[in-house]
Structure formats: C-alpha cells, structure tokens
Amino acid sequence: MEAVIDPSGPTCVSFVQEGSVLYNDFATFDLVPVSNELVGKPLKVTKVNDSYVLTVDDSAITADQWASVRTQQRDLLYKSDWTCSVTDYEVPNKPDWITYRQALRDVTTQPDPFNIVWPAPPS
C-alpha cells in the first residue's frame, strides 16, 4: 500500500488520523490525504525522484505484534505461577505444568508472530 505525497518535502510522519497525515517539514505543517488503508498504521516516508511515497512500515507492525505476543505470554505464565511457587501443596500433573510453562517460554522462538501456536494448559 502506498500514497504519493506532494513534493513539498516532509521529513517525518508524525500523526495519522481520519484519512490524512500530518507531516513536519521543520517549519511547515501540511495535511496530506491518504487512503483509508493507511490510517492508524505505522508509516514511513521515502523520497522517490521529486515526490515522496508513504508506505506502511511492516517492520513496525511486526514489532507491535511481537509485543502483543509477549504480553499474552507473560499473562499466561503469571496465571500458571501457582503451579511452581507453592511449596506445601501437591500440584496435580506437575510435570505437565512444567512442560506447559516451558512451551509458553518457547513461544517467542516461533518464526511468525501473526500465527502463534499457543500450548494448551494441562487439564
């Protein structure tokens, strides 16, 4: 996805809302129309000849997704902490819980943050 920006010289995209990008050319602020597919997504500006091209920054989207995966991973580890922190209580299926928690830790070694295979907790 891309949108061509007027060649007035934006240096960075600073705000995206309601179909427009507010960009900063140091002293000049302009509103540039963009397609709705770009709204709310991290964008980057690239100069091509005498114009600027606005594209979705896929690396930022991927980084955001990995952050979301890590948040869910921490939440699931927290919810299963009781299985390893209780000393005077017999945890049912303790070896299964150990395996489950290790699988949760290994989630971030999967190659695609958009297609995570989450382990199922022991029953």
* Helical residues, percent: 25-40%
Order of helices and strands: EEEEEEHHH
How many domains, as an integer?
2
What characteristic shape results from the CA principal axes? rod-shaped
Low-confidence stretches: 1-31
Write down the overall mean pLDDT. 73
> How far apart are the termini?
45 Å
Strand order of the largest sheet: 1-6-5
Number of helices: 3
What is the SS-derived class?
Answer: alpha+beta
Radius of gyration, taken over Cα atoms and rounded to an integer in Å: 23 Å
Hey, roughly how much beta strand do the residues contain?
25-35%
Please explain how this structure is put together.
With 123 residues, the protein is α+β, with helices and mostly antiparallel strands. It has two domains: 2-56, no CATH class; 59-109. The protein is built from three helices and six strands. Strand 3 (20-25) and strand 4 form a beta hairpin.
